[in-house]
Specification:
- This protein is an alpha/beta fold.
- The chain has a single domain, classed as Alpha-Beta Barrel (TIM Barrel), CATH 3.20.20.70.
- Strands 1, 2, 3, 4, 5, 8, 9, 10, 11 and 12 form a 10-stranded mixed sheet that branches. Strands 6-7 form a two-stranded antiparallel ribbon.
- Helix 4 crosses helix 5.
- Zinc ion binds next to loops.
């Protein structure tokens, strides 16, 4: 009677046989940050182990990733010049287009995803074009620009597009733009339930994408809202998203499960910069067993319902998992 659960935990082989959730290197997408120049690999103080890299360094990094069994990356671009609309993002010789071309040329087998947004490219740091009257992002002008940006990435040879700007109707607009340009087979992974989170802080150091003034609360979601999070993801499914996403992950495990239970689409989660940095800093302070806490965290995302994990821990986790 008292051994009902424990008798199945005594033998380690039986424990493995009964394990319900598994983590694999196939689950990971690894984020990389591209900038111009050559031979540049600058570590960011708030994110140990994460770098701004020139394109040649990114191409080299892909070799390391493949050796670890990591087959997919998500790219972010840091342009030389920012302006009010984020022109670099819509330019065939912008940082993102150049990076995608270089990576796909050197590593045709690397699955390359691009983050599709404007905050890294605008001088005001917001995720689209600003409406001067509303003093926030103009939804529909931004939709047109997102579609243009998507086609630029597509022409550069990207394997999947991941729009992260939380504009209403963005999936429909991007799908329409891609289809019209002949890219019907290019999948779209929507950052569908993305919250206005303070956990993005370290990312904005790496990507140099902090809003100059204001915040992103008029387009990203209120962290308090559960029903709205489901509605956002369900709406993106209806607009034609191929994969949905919950972001951030750690403080949103309930949302991951909610979205999982309300769609049959594959689900990604973004284990964001602040979540990564917390573990790094705790490890530095000697207060946690970093590897164990990292693996437990990543496994938790799978258990909550994630199929894909976008994580800065991917290399370290891959080493532990072997391949
Ligand atoms: C761009 C974007 C952000 C992140 C991914 N894409 C930042 C933001 O919305 O401010 C955050 C990723 C992270 O924190 O690791 N819109
Ligand atoms: Zn953005």
């Amino acid at each position: 009677m008292f051994a009902r659960f424990r008798r199945k935990r005594i033998n380690p082989v039986l424990r493995d046989l009964l394990q319900e959730t598994h983590l694999s290197v196939n689950d990971f997408i690894y984020p990389l940050f591209a900038r111009s120049g050559t031979g540049i690999k600058d570590e960011v103080a708030s994110m140990p182990g994460v770098y701004q890299m020139s394109i040649d360094e990114i191409v080299k990094e892909c070799e390391t990733l493949k050796a670890l069994g990591i087959k997919s990356i998500i790219l972010f671009g840091i342009p030389d010049v920012k302006d009010s609309v984020g022109s670099d993002a819509m330019c065939e010789h912008g940082i993102m287009a150049e990076t995608v071309r270089a990576v796909k040329t050197a590593h045709p087998d690397m699955f390359v995803v691009t983050d599709l947004c404007f905050c890294e490219y605008t001088d005001h740091g917001h995720c689209g074009v600003i409406d001067p009257v509303l003093e926030t992002v103009d939804n529909d002008i931004t939709l047109d620009n997102l579609a243009k940006q998507a086609v630029v990435h597509a022409k550069a040879g990207v394997d999947m597009i991941a729009p992260s700007g939380m504009m209403d109707g963005m999936i429909q607009a991007i799908r329409g733009g891609l289809d019209a340009a002949g890219f019907e087979n290019l999948p779209v992974m929507s950052y569908s339930s993305k919250f206005a989170s303070a956990y993005y802080g370290p990312f904005r150091d790496v990507a140099e994408s902090s809003p100059g003034k204001g915040d992103r609360k008029s387009y990203q979601m209120n962290p308090a809202n559960r029903n709205e999070a489901i509605a956002e993801s369900v709406a993106d499914e209806a607009e034609g998203a191929d994969i949905l996403m919950v972001k951030p992950a750690l403080a949103y495990m309930d949302i991951i499960r909610d979205v999982r239970n309300n769609t049959t689409l594959p689900l990604a989660i973004y284990n964001v910069s602040g979540e990564y940095s917390m573990l790094k800093m705790a490890a530095r302070a000697g207060v946690i067993d970093y590897d164990a806490v990292m693996m437990e965290t990543l496994l938790g995302f799978k258990r909550a319902g994630a199929d894909i994990i976008i994580t800065y821990h991917a290399k370290e986790a891959a080493e532990i998992l072997g391949n």
